[in-house]
Every structure is written in C-alpha cells, then in structure tokens.
Design goal:
By secondary structure, the protein is an alpha/beta fold. Helix 6 links the parallel strand 7 and strand 8.
Length: 511
C-alpha cells in the first residue's frame, strides 16, 4: 500500500509540543462607517482586532502536531501577515523535504463537515485576518460552500463502482476504480478554505492519502481545519498531513517524491510548468493543474447595461480581483461602449473599501506587499500604454495593501493589462464590433479557464458558449459554483485509477 511506503520513511520519533487553542467571540464590533476608495487613509482607520487566539502553528504530520524537522519557523524567513496592516499575525513552522518524508496518509471522515459548520465563525475570522477578504464573504458565502462540498464528496464515498465487461473468449473481466495512493496537493492563497475543500474532499472520498502544502501566506485556516478533522477522526493518525513552507522547498519535494503517486496543483501557470516537470523527472506521477486565467466577459449589444455593468463589476472585483477566473477582459459592443464606460466608472467609484471585518465592506487589502506592488506596476503599465485611466490607479492610505478600484477604457489587445493576469482590482474594458471579432480576440490568449457572456439573445449565447475555448462559460451570471458543477480539476476522477482484471473461466456455462 502507498500509505505503508510513506510510513516506512518515518524513522524518527515525533513529539507534540504546544497544544492547539483557538477561540473567537461572536461580537466583532463591526463599525458603521463605510468608505469609498476616494477617502484614502480613512478606509484603514480604526481597524477591528479579531478576538482570535492563535497558539497553534505547527505542522500536522502522521496524526501529530509537530515542529518542522529543521526546527525553522516563518519568523526566520517569511511571516504570516495581516494584509490590512502588514504586521505579523503568527510565525508558522516551516516544512521542507524531510517533513514530506514524514507525512503519511488520509481518508475521508464524514463528521468533519458538521464540526466545520459548528466552527463557521472561527474559520471565517481566520480566513479574513490572514487573507484580507471581507468577513461577510467568508462567513456567508465561502464557509457554507466549504461545508456543502465535504458533504457532497462524502456522499460519493460508497458510490464508486467498477464494471463487469463482456469480453470475447472464456474470461471474466472486471474494471476496478482504485485509489491512486498518496496524493500530494499544493493550494494557493486566494481561497485557502475553498481550495482545501476542493483538493481534500475528492481525494478523501476516493480513499487516498494526502500530504497538503498550504501557501506560505495563508496557512492558518488549513491548520485549523486539519485540527477539526483530527478531532472527529476515529483513526486519524497519518490520515491528513499539512505542511507549510515555500514552493521551492516543500512544494518541490512533494512534486519530486518517489512515493507520492499524484500531484494536484492550483496556482500560476509558470509554477505549474515547474511542478509538471518535477513530477515527470521523478516517477512520472500524474499531475492535474488549475492555473491562471484572463477570462473574457462579453457584453453584447442587446444587453441591459445596468445589469451588465453590475455583473461585470462583480466578475472582476470580487475577492479584491484575486480570482483565477476573474472576468478581467471586459469586451463591450461598440454600440453601448460609451454608456457602459460611464456606468462602470461610477460603480467602481462607489465600491466600499476598508477593514474587511466591518459590515458592508466590499473590498479589503491585497494579500501581501509583493502582490500589492505587482498590481500597481500593471496600473502604471496601462497608463504608459495610453489606455485611458477612468478612475483609481493608486493605493489607499499609507498602511496595509489597499488598492483603489481601477477602471481602464480604450484598452488594446497588445497591452499588458489585456494580456497578463493582474490578480487585482483593475478592470480593462475593450471595444468590439461583431461576434466573429470578439470570438477571435477572446480566444487569443494562453489561458482557457472561464468566460462570461451577457446577452438576451439565446442564439447569440449558444454561438458564444460553443465558440469560446474555455472550461466554464457563465451566461448572464458569473462565479456560480456548486459541488456538482465541474470546474478546473475538482473531480473525483482525478483521484481514481482504472484497472482491468481478467480471469480465465474454466468450463463456463455460457459466454
């Protein structure tokens, strides 16, 4: 068994040091003051301090919470930040190649969803504090889907069946769907809990073992979720293993490990290429990748402009623009382009930016100083390329990583803001003349994750949905997710392997 292969590498004794403790008061004292981005420093004054006690920062390895084998901590390299202020929240143990060797196996536990639902407020608070996304988004949208996903995958655990095939000759043929074995999983920082569910859920349902590497920026919710998982397990030792550290160390070790049977990675396209190369150079383990995006959002000439503006705004600015499937190329028909620009600008100017723990806030800070600086570089590039800056274009305040909601018009296909994944609150609006043109231009990209179409005409919708070379097309909606809807690599099939078993039949009564 794959689990025993990993288990045989655990030669050293593991010890638990500090106990896990996390508590959260239900009253966040949300302020009534809501600020538009033009109010600058006011948006980041009087920040709410979450009443979360973070005493657990170790790795979960082989059913125990342990220090890293090297004894290192993020404080020596990268801290875990509060993106509202840039200050350190906690220092989390680093995992490296030796910790990957000490990780063992996992399987699904159906009771986890109930406990996660019970701890909705704690998980949402940690997600907001560590990531910067609005608390209302985390608590009311993401956590319910997180729980729903685990319940959905739990329901599949006893419904994975093989086949009996009628073959020529005296043979009994079975087609079995077996667990792959040890699944290495690498998740990003933009949706830590959702990525945890999409990776861990199907792998557990299919009976695999898991070693999951968190993003170094956002380890806190995965560690807390893993602790909950450990609490409800009747055989938790080695079932789910969590390591934290940089990609070049723990991530590379996971992708290269000869006893890891499969890698699932969500992140940038460039890093995905490295992961695939490392997997090929080791044991040719299968790799599933969900990479970047530059999704087109197409507003047709028959669109209700007010509705289209609101949906296009949501498609781009949701989660501070830090979505792989963000509608970051807004194509608008020339007949309605000017009206759309004016209303898109007005909507961006009214967007509420500030402390994500406050009620009514739509946009928090970017994740870290690197992403913050990257977004501002792309904004400067848009200005230098002669795109028209309609609004925004700078930072908010002098503390934290808040960026003004930014809108560019007169954007051309060859500009960096139209080609590259910015991963920030920057809306690029392009003009087109007809369907043939917009189909050609929308497909002229190295990305193919998603697209949005806004039209009242069913024939137009049918034409575009079939012509766009993407994995998901949302028609008159955007970012609609459900456990039963395929997206990216979140599928049970990615954690099963097919095996044919052929057995001779002696003196069969019939064939």
């Amino acid at each position: 068994m794959a689990a025993r292969r990993i288990s045989s590498l655990l030669s050293r004794s593991l010890s638990v040091s500090s106990a896990f403790s996390l508590s959260l008061g239900k009253n966040f004292n949300r302020g009534k003051s809501i600020h538009r981005f033009s109010t600058a420093a006011a948006a980041v004054e009087e920040l709410i301090t979450p009443t979360v006690q973070i005493n657990y920062t170790q790795l979960l390895i082989n059913g125990q919470f342990v220090d890293a084998a090297s004894g290192n901590h993020f404080c020596e390299n990268i801290p875990t930040f509060d993106p509202r202020t840039g200050e350190v929240i906690a220092n989390v143990a680093e995992g490296d190649a030796e910790d990957i060797n000490r990780a063992e196996r996992s399987r699904i536990l159906l009771r986890f969803a109930d406990l996660a639902e019970k701890h909705n407020d704690e998980l949402a608070a940690l997600e907001t504090w560590n990531n910067g996304k609005p608390y209302e988004q985390a608590a009311k949208a993401e956590l319910p889907l997180f729980v729903r996903l685990f319940r959905y995958y739990a329901g599949w655990a006893d419904k994975i069946h093989g086949l009996t095939v009628q073959a020529d000759g005296p043979h009994h043929v079975q087609i079995l769907h077996e667990p792959i074995g040890v699944a290495g999983q690498i998740i990003p920082w933009n949706f830590p809990l959702m990525m945890f569910a999409w990776k861990v859920g199907p792998a557990l349902a299919c009976g695999n073992t898991i070693v999951l590497k968190t993003a170094e920026q956002t380890p806190l919710t995965a560690l807390f979720a893993a602790k909950l998982f450990h609490e409800v397990s009747w055989s938790s030792s080695g079932v789910l293993n969590i390591v934290s550290r940089y990609g070049p160390t723990a991530g590379a070790a996971l992708a290269s490990h000869m006893d890891v049977d499969k890698i699932a990675f969500t992140g940038s396209t460039d890093t995905g290429k490295i992961v695939q190369e490392l997997a090929a150079k080791s044991n040719l383990k299968p790799v599933t990748l969900e990479l970047g995006g530059k999704s087109p959002f197409i507003v047709c000439e028959d669109a209700d402009i007010d509705q289209a503006v609101e949906l296009a705004h949501f498609a781009l600015f949701f989660n501070q623009g830090q979505c792989c499937c963000a509608g970051s190329r807004t194509f608008v028909h020339e007949s309605v382009y000017d009206e759309f620009i004016e209303k898109a600008k007005a909507r961006a100017l009214s967007r509420t930016v500030g402390d994500p723990f406050k009620k009514g806030i739509e946009q928090g800070p970017q994740i870290d100083p690197e992403q913050f600086a990257k977004v501002l570089r792309y904004i400067r590039s848009g200005i230098e390329s002669n795109a028209t800056l309609e609004c925004g274009g700078g930072r908010i305040g002098s503390k934290g990583y808040f960026v003004q909601p930014t809108v560019f018009s007169n954007v051309q296909d060859d500009m960096l803001i139209a080609k590259d994944e910015i991963f920030g609150p920057v809306q690029s609006i392009l003009k087109y003349k007809d369907l043939d043109e917009v189909i050609r231009r929308a497909n002229s990209t190295r990305y193919g994750l998603a697209a949005g179409v806004f039209t009242k005409n069913i024939n137009t919708a049918n034409t575009l949905t079939r012509a766009l070379r993407v994995g998901t097309v949302w028609v008159n909606c955007f970012d609609v997710f459900d456990a039963a809807i395929p997206f990216g690599i979140y599928s049970l099939n990615n954690y099963l392997q097919v095996k044919a078993v052929i057995t001779p039949l002696r003196n069969p009564a019939w064939l």
